[in-house]
Amino acid sequence: METAKKKVLIDSGSDIESCVAILMALASPEIEVVGITSATDEDFPVLKELCLLAEKRHIPLYKPEKAPDFIKLAMEDFSGSLYIASLSDCRNIYQVLNDIPPEKIQIKQLFVTEKYIADSLKASLLYKIDKLTLISSDLAEVIRITLHDLVIMEALHTKSATYISEQIKEKLANNPENYLVLYNPIAVACILRPALFGGIFGSASFYGGIAKEESFATEEQNNILCINEVNIDAFFALLNERLAMLP
After folding, report:
1. Of 129, 144, 167, 232, which is the most buried if we count CB atoms within 10 A?
2. What is the DSSP annotation of 173-219?
3. How far apart are the first and last CA of the chain?
4. Closest by alpha carbon to 109, among 121, 98, 123, 93?
5. pLDDT above 90: percentage of residues in the chain
6. Is the residue at 247 inside a domain?
7. Given the DSSP bridges, would you call strands 180-181 and 144-145 parallel, antiparallel or unpaired?
8. Can you say whether residue 54 is alpha, beta or left, with left for phi > 0 and alpha for psi between -120 and 50 degrees?
9. Is residue 242 part of a domain?
């Protein structure tokens, strides 16, 4: 019997690491991308270009003015089974939380990257969502892509891999440290291969709006999974495997 695909909504900007994450999701047969919402109007054309590049023209795309309503509708349609990968500053998610109390949010999992959370008041709402996975900024030390990694990617000889490698090369040309941190693809990889990652469960306690491991030993409900470990070789193998599946 065929396994049901995981329903995934992507809320995204258009930076290169978000582009990598989106292409990774679009390539994955285990995932049904039910829609992509744009963080800003400026991001929208890039997100549209990615869908065309991946030959996934059927994917619904939403500009910011319609994004919150679509997110609410998707949560209702796929109650309890929807994964949301937030690859931006969560502005669309916060709009949803203005209408729906966080404790009423019914989803399978919400993935948020710690580096995007800066507003303590908004973060206090976000951390009350029952199924929240926080991708720790500590992973910056390991999830780095370099020119050496791009050699493998370029050898795939696909339009999508070439697009990504060229964009990363451009970024690296202006980066004296010669690496780029890929936080956002972790969200998609967690949905695909959770066994590649490790973390700790914790509560909604936070320090200055940013969840810290030291605050996880509290009496509050441990509703947050903080991802702080990754099998980096397996992660990059998965990334290249999926890029090879695209045009």
Report:
1. 129
2. HT-TT--EE--THHHHHHHH-GGGEEEEEE-S--BTTB--GGGGSSS
3. 28
4. 93
5. 68
6. no
7. antiparallel
8. alpha
9. no
- Which pLDDT score, from 0 to 100, does residue 233 have? 94
Residue 20 inside a domain? The answer is: yes
Q: Do 13 and 87 meet the contact criterion of CB atoms below 8 Å apart?
A: yes
**Residue 203, CA atoms < 13 Å, CB-side half-sphere:** 10
Domain region containing 188: 6-137+184-230
- The residue assigned the tokens 């390539």 is 27
Whichever domain contains 85, its CATH number is: 3.90.245.10
Q: Helix (H, G, I), strand (E, B), or coil: what is residue 63?
A: coil
Q: Where are the alpha helices (DSSP H) in the chain?
A: 16-27, 44-53, 67-77, 91-99, 120-126, 147-154, 159-173, 185-192, 232-243
Encoding tokens for residue 45? 């054309």
Only one residue has tokens 């700790």, namely: 200
Give the pLDDT confidence score for residue 60 in this predicted structure.
98
Confirm whether 223 is domain-assigned. Answer: yes
Q: What is the pLDDT of residues 39-92, one digit of tens each?
A: 999 999 999 999 999 999 999 999 999 999 999 999 999 989 999 999 999 999
Q: What is the pLDDT of residue 210?
A: 43
C-alpha 150/C-alpha 170 separation (Å) is 12
Number of domains in the chain: 1
Residue with tokens 């914790």: 202
Which phi-psi region, left, alpha or beta, contains residue 207 (left: φ > 0; alpha: ψ -120 to 50)? beta
